[in-house]
Amino acid sequence: MSKSRRKQICTYCGERAGTTRDHIPPKGLFAKPRPNLITVPCCELCRESQSLDDEYFVRMISMRSGTADNPSASAARDSALRSLTKPAKRRFANSLLGSAKDFAVYSPSGIYLGQSMSYDVDLKRLCNVIERTTCGLFSHEFGQRLPDGDRCKAYAIDGFDLAIPEVLGQLQK
Fold first, then answer.
1. Average per-residue pLDDT for the chain
2. What is the pLDDT of residues 105-157, one digit of tens each?
3. How many domains does the chain have?
4. Dist CA 19 CA 39 (whole Å)
5. Nearest to residue 135, comparing CAs of 14, 7, 54?
6. H helices present in the chain, as ranges
7. Is the CB of residue 20 less than 8 Å from the CB of residue 42?
8. Residue-range definition of the domain harbouring residue 133
9. What is the per-residue pLDDT for 67?
């Protein structure tokens, strides 16, 4: 390992050495051959704690309605669906299938188009990946971690009710 890599601090926690590199955004979002992705220094503890959220993010984004024509989404979706057959992913597959439900589909003009299936999505996990990606991009662009005391926070539209009152006030302006 190079001397300069040992001295780097983890982009996310700022406490431990960045002994590995984290791809931002998650590399699973892109079909092979992948573009040259940005990487930032990351400690093993942060990387391990983020890997399941990255996997979840890629699965949920790739299985989203309207992504069928995108080659990267198609490749990620095929990989995600294959992974659901693995014994180690049985719990996740059962949870996903258990949350599936029918819902009414309407055109943009309000015409009823029929029923379709949907599943529950953990928006907090998606926001975790977006927050981490934003912090990583900040680090890459400015050559430093997000300053201590500053924070990156992402809210999904369905999660605005969880935002602190100051954020809600700013969004309503």
1. 84
2. 888 888 999 988 888 888 899 999 999 999 999 999 999 999 988 989 888 87
3. 1
4. 12
5. 14
6. 3-7, 44-62, 71-83, 90-99, 123-142, 165-172
7. yes
8. 3-172
9. 78
* Residue with the larger pLDDT of the pair 7 and 109: 109
* Tokens describing residue 144: 């430093």
Joined tokens for residue 127 = 């926001």
Give the residue carrying structure tokens 């201590």.
148
Q: Is 0.70 surpassed by the pTM of this model?
A: yes
Is residue 66 a contact partner of residue 33, using CB atoms and an 8 Å limit?
A: no
- Residue 138: the pLDDT is 96
CB 73 within 8 A of CB 61: yes
Q: What share of the chain is helix, strand, coil (3-state, %, to 5)?
A: 50, 15, 35
pLDDT higher at 95 or 135:
135
**C-alpha distances out from residue 34 to 8, 40, 98, 156, 157, Å:** 26, 17, 33, 27, 30
- Whether 22 and 37 have beta carbons less than 8 Å apart is answered as no
